[in-house]
TrEMBL record:
<dbReference type="InterPro" id="IPR052156">
    <property type="entry name" value="BCAA_Transport_ATP-bd_LivF"/>
</dbReference>
<protein>
    <submittedName>
        <fullName>Amino acid/amide ABC transporter ATP-binding protein 2 (HAAT family)</fullName>
    </submittedName>
</protein>
<dbReference type="GO" id="GO:0016887">
    <property type="term" value="F:ATP hydrolysis activity"/>
</dbReference>
<dbReference type="InterPro" id="IPR003439">
    <property type="entry name" value="ABC_transporter-like_ATP-bd"/>
</dbReference>
<dbReference type="InterPro" id="IPR017871">
    <property type="entry name" value="ABC_transporter-like_CS"/>
</dbReference>
<dbReference type="GO" id="GO:0015658">
    <property type="term" value="F:branched-chain amino acid transmembrane transporter activity"/>
</dbReference>
<keyword id="KW-0813">Transport</keyword>
<comment type="similarity">
    <text>Belongs to the ABC transporter superfamily.</text>
</comment>
<feature type="domain" description="ABC transporter">
    <location>
        <begin position="6"/>
        <end position="235"/>
    </location>
</feature>
<dbReference type="GO" id="GO:0015807">
    <property type="term" value="P:L-amino acid transport"/>
</dbReference>
<dbReference type="InterPro" id="IPR003593">
    <property type="entry name" value="AAA+_ATPase"/>
</dbReference>
<keyword id="KW-0067">ATP-binding</keyword>
<dbReference type="Pfam" id="PF00005">
    <property type="entry name" value="ABC_tran"/>
</dbReference>
<dbReference type="GO" id="GO:0005524">
    <property type="term" value="F:ATP binding"/>
</dbReference>
<keyword id="KW-0547">Nucleotide-binding</keyword>
<keyword id="KW-0029">Amino-acid transport</keyword>
<dbReference type="InterPro" id="IPR027417">
    <property type="entry name" value="P-loop_NTPase"/>
</dbReference>
């Protein structure tokens, strides 16, 4: 196996008096879509925020493309090629869809071919291009948040629960968009609670519990093993179709 693009080695994170991550280790391969699953409070969001330097690892090491980024500042991590879409999305509701995306392209105007590709992933954004982002539905705001993250080419995309609270039709649209990102060769680490979406998208899967990785492997193997689903997640795929 080649060296992972992203590698966490025995990472621990404290937030104030709370010890959240307890020696988290895993790798994300270039070109893969890796699912990070687990119950609420397992440490998934903390893992993404620690990778981005928003919360500091208190022990362990984080390597990106062979470089140690454990102590790097968040802007430097972003400049290295990692984009983060938080669960809160963080869009500017008073700005138009166009202005939100223009602001995300820090290196200058977006290449027209890349813009067409992005709007092909999320056609609703084209329809609301010159309207305030606050007018969008929840699912459309999520699409805008992801589009902003890929306004410029990125080496790695971190996304926190993109289907949370979405209607089934929007979940299906989001699945199709991530399938297109996979086909384009993007590398994604995706936190998800919707097991149906996870099973449709994941190449690899990591499962967290109590701040630890308790399982890693191929997503297809987890989908095929309902007893493993029940043991690790307390669910089965059949219940979420």
């Amino acid at each position: 196996m080649p060296e992972p693009l992203l590698q966490l080695e025995a990472v621990q994170t404290h937030i104030g008096p709370y010890h959240i991550l307890h020696g988290v280790s895993f790798g994300v391969q270039t070109g893969s879509l890796t699912m990070l699953l687990g119950r609420n409070g397992a440490g998934k969001t903390t893992t993404l925020r620690t990778i981005m330097g928003l919360w500091r690892a208190s022990a362990g090491r984080i390597r990106f493309d062979g470089r140690d980024i454990t102590a790097s500042a968040t802007p430097d991590i972003a400049r290295a090629g990692i984009a983060y879409v938080p669960e809160s999305m963080g869009i500017f509701t008073d700005l138009t869809v166009r202005e939100n995306i223009v602001l995300a392209a820090r290196s200058g105007p977006i290449d027209s071919a890349r813009l067409d590709w992005m709007l092909g992933l999320f056609p609703a954004l084209r329809r609301f291009w010159n309207l305030p982002a606050g007018n969008l539905s929840g699912g459309q705001k999520q699409m805008l948040a992801i589009a902003r993250a890929i306004a410029e080419p990125r080496r790695l995309l971190l996304v926190d629960e993109p289907t949370k609270g979405l209607a089934p039709v929007m979940v299906r649209s989001m699945i199709e968009a991530f399938k297109a990102l996979k086909e384009a060769g993007e590398t994604v680490l995706l936190v998800e609670q919707n097991f149906y979406a996870a099973s449709a998208l994941g190449d690899d899967v990591l499962i967290m519990d109590d701040g630890r990785i308790v399982h890693s492997g191929r997503m297809s193997d987890l989908v095929a093993d309902q007893s493993l689903q029940q043991r690790l997640l307390g669910l089965s795929l059949d219940a979420h179709q």
